[in-house]
Structure formats: C-alpha cells, structure tokens
Automatic annotation (TrEMBL):
Residues 69-170 form the Streptococcal pilin isopeptide linkage domain. It comes from Ligilactobacillus ruminis. Residues 176-275 form the DUF7601 domain. The chain crosses the membrane at residues 12-31, 342-364. InterPro entries: DUF7601, Strep_pil_isopept_link, Strep_pil_link_sf. Keywords: Membrane, Transmembrane, Transmembrane helix. This is Streptococcal pilin isopeptide linker domain-containing protein.
C-alpha cells in the first residue's frame, strides 16, 4: 500500500467517524429533548386543570359562588373528544381561592400525536378579569406491540413555553369610595377654621396603577372643588374646614389610616368611621395637643403616630370617616391672641395713641379759655 493510498484511506475513515459521531450526538440530543419535555400531571388517563381566583382583602363579600367552565378545540381532525369538569368557586376569606378539575380523552384510533387547544369559557361575573391563557395540548399515543394504544404523555404549551402544570388565574377587581367629612359646631368664625388631616394609603393586592391616588375635596355648602394627589405609602396632609368632603375612588382592599393634628385651641374632636363592611369605629377626645386617630388602630401621639398605626382596609363599596370638631372653650380676647413677642409693642402703641389724643384735647381746651 502506497503512502498516497494510506492517506486517502485514513482521511475517509476520519470523515466517516466524524459523521457517525455527529449524527449520533444530534439524534441523542433530539431524542433527549423530546423526552425531557415537561409532561402534565396525570394518573389513570386523567389530567389535572388548576384554577386560581385572586382577590384583594375583603373581596370575599363580592366573590359570587359560581362554576368556572372550560372549552377544548380539536386541532387534529381525527382526535377523540375531551371530557373536562367545572371548578366550583365558593366564598372564602383567602385572597387566593384555589380549585381544580380533571380532563380525560376519548378512545384513540391510531398511534401518533394529537393536538388540542384548552381555554376558559367567558362568563358574566361583574368585576372579574378572566384569564386569556390558551394551552396547546399535545397527546403522544403509542402502541404496546399487541395492538393496544396508550397515552405516552401529555404536554402543555402557552406563550411559547412548555409547562408542567395547566393553570388559569382570574382576578376580581372592584372599586369603592372612601370619604372623609369635616363638621364643626360653633359660630361662623369656627366654621372657617381649617383642621389638618394626615392620611396614608397602601396598595390593594390587585392594584395595577401608577402608585398615585387622586381625590376631590368638595364643600357641601359652597360647592367649591379642588383636587389632590396622594402617593401610596407616603403620608399626605390636607386641610379641611366645615362642610369639606374628601373623596377617593379606590380598589377594594386598599389599606388606609388617618388622624387629625390637634392643639390646645378649644376644639374637641370626635369621629365615626366604617370600612364599608365590619363594625363601625367611634372615638372622641378633649381639647389637647395630642393627635387624634380617625380610624381604628390609628393611635399614638406626635411623631409616634405613623409607627404605632395599623391600617384598616376598604371592604365595601362605601367607606366613610365623619369628623366633628366642637368648640367648647372660651373666646379669647384680641390681646391674648397676639404673640408674646409683639404684645409689648402693641400695648406701647396703644398708650402713645391715647396720649396724643389727650394732648390734642388739652390744646383745644386752652384755646377756648
């Protein structure tokens, strides 16, 4: 064998080995990939379909008892029908109501792959945002060699990704009104006094906004209106006088607390509030410098108020906070209302004016004489 012939033979063997190894690795990878695809959980030919209903705190009063239904469309012409149950949603205090049902396939007539599309049927439940997920189910059917067919595996794909679980998630979104009304008992001057109110909001579990809540302050008597914006998680101070009503429209489940800043000014506050569903809260305080909580759990004084407060949350469609400030002190004279720094100057000024008037009067009297 010549050297040239040996080289040609060696080259041919090397090419053959390379091609063999490449094909073997490729086929092994492809086979591995096909068999590593996540399969949907199932047993005895039945496969589980999960359903989750997400709701905010307090939403249980608005989760109607109903049945979640599904629909399956065949993509393979000779695919057998699919049987699938319904998911029953009951009243619950949980924010995530979980349920499940099972689907099963009819009799397959051949080995191979069958394709279906599974989705949730539309319903007319008010405030419910239904899942738009669509699962492509691929059923691999094989023969056992004795003429019997069996399901090898079922895979589910949605949004371009293969899943090991079929799950649909619906969300309940409802809104309610939170209002803070200010009332003052006293004369017309008392009713012009503004009282500082500090409030704070926390997001509902189902909140999907920009983090800002908008409200309108309207006076019942003058009909004047003004808008305010409150960032979730931050304290906001607003001034309310007699007849002012602060109104928010917020998602059910929004947390909130509020308090009135107080000082020794002769006014005693009291409050009645309701979160829209539970037992109303009421409280009162005498004339004093301590901050006055307007919601149950909002207690403390001074700078401790924020740290000692626990928010309540909007449960129903109409939550109200009614504040009344009653003037029960004595009317303070003009001189007493002046700051101490200026009181001496004011008294001296008054004395000077009196002296001038008396001097002018004495001059006129002498001229007459």
């Amino acid at each position: 064998m010549t050297k040239e012939r040996f080289r040609e033979l060696s080259h041919a063997v090397a090419v053959f080995v390379f091609v063999f190894v490449f094909v073997f690795v490729f086929e092994s990878s492809a086979f591995s990939s096909e068999n590593d695809v996540s399969a949907v959980e199932g047993k005895d030919g039945k496969y589980t379909v999960h359903h989750v209903l997400r709701a905010a705190r307090g939403m249980r009063a608005f989760v109607p008892q109903h049945l979640v239904e599904f629909e399956v469309k065949k993509e393979t012409p000779d695919a057998p029908d699919v049987s699938i149950g319904k998911v029953r949603v009951d009243y619950d205090s949980s924010q995530n109501l979980k349920g499940s049902t099972q689907l099963s396939f009819g009799t397959f007539t051949r080995a191979g792959e069958y394709s279906y599309v599974l989705s949730e049927k539309k319903n007319n439940v008010s405030g419910m945002e239904q899942s738009t997920a669509k699962y492509r189910l691929r059923v691999q059917v094989s023969s056992d060699g004795n003429g019997k067919l069996k399901i090898k595996c079922v895979t589910a794909e949605t949004d371009g990704k293969k899943r090991d679980k079929i799950e649909f998630t619906d969300v309940i979104r409802k809104k309610g009104e939170l209002s803070i009304s200010m009332n003052v008992q006293g004369d017309s001057a008392d009713k012009q006094k503004e009282f500082p109110i500090v409030l704070k909001l926390s997001k509902a579990k189902t909140y999907d906004g920009n983090g800002i809540a908008e409200a309108i302050i309207e006076n019942r008597d003058s009909k004047e209106k003004r808008k305010i914006r409150v960032a979730y998680g931050n304290q906001k101070q607003v001034s309310l006088k007699h007849g002012d009503v602060l109104r928010f429209v917020l998602p059910i489940g929004t947390g909130y607390w509020a308090y009135q800043k107080c000082e020794r000014d002769g006014y005693s506050p009291d409050v009645w509030s309701s979160d829209g569903d539970s037992i109303p809260y009421s409280g009162s305080a005498g004339d004093g410098k301590y901050d006055f909580g307007l919601t149950n759990g909002c207690k403390g004084n001074g700078g401790l108020m924020d740290g000692m407060s626990k928010d309540v949350f909007l449960r129903g469609l109409d939550a109200k906070i009614n504040v009344t400030n009653v003037f029960n002190g004595k009317k303070v004279s003009l001189i007493k209302t002046l700051p101490d720094d200026y009181l001496g100057f004011e008294i001296i000024g008054i004395i000077v004016v009196v002296c001038v008037i008396m001097g002018v009067a004495m001059v006129f009297r002498r001229r007459r004489l």
